[in-house]
Amino acid sequence: QVQLVESGGGLVQPGGSLRLSCAASGFTFSSYAMRWYRQAPGKERELVAAITSTGDSTNYADSMKGRFTISRDNTKNTVYLQMNSLKPDDTAVYYCNAYRTTYHNFWGLGTQVTVSS
Question: What confidence tier does 103 reach under pLDDT thresholds 50, 70, 90?
Answer without folding.
Answer: confident
